[in-house]
Write a structure and sequence with these properties.
about 80 residues; mainly alpha; 3 helices
């Protein structure tokens, strides 16, 4: 249980950080990167299977999936900030 939480936090941090690099100007710091990465993973887990894209296994697959969701989240946030 604790190991799963640590993996979620690490994957969230990496995914949020990478998404911030991809979508320029959206660096929010470590805590927000973790939150954005985790929420991005949830978004990707809901949205991508609906359009026929399924996650590959392992940590790398989770990070890629979460980055895709986090980028989508940051783009949506960027639309509302304008």
């Amino acid at each position: 249980m604790i190991v799963d939480l640590i993996v979620w936090l690490i994957v969230g941090a990496i995914a949020g950080w990478l998404a911030g690099l991809i979508v320029k100007g959206y660096g929010f710091g470590l805590l927000w990167n973790i939150i954005i990465g985790i929420v991005g993973g949830i978004i990707a887990g809901w949205l991508l299977p609906m359009i026929g894209i399924f996650s590959i296994g392992g940590i790398a697959g989770q990070i890629i999936y979460s980055v895709i969701g986090a980028v989508i989240l940051l783009l949506i946030v960027g639309l509302f900030k304008r």
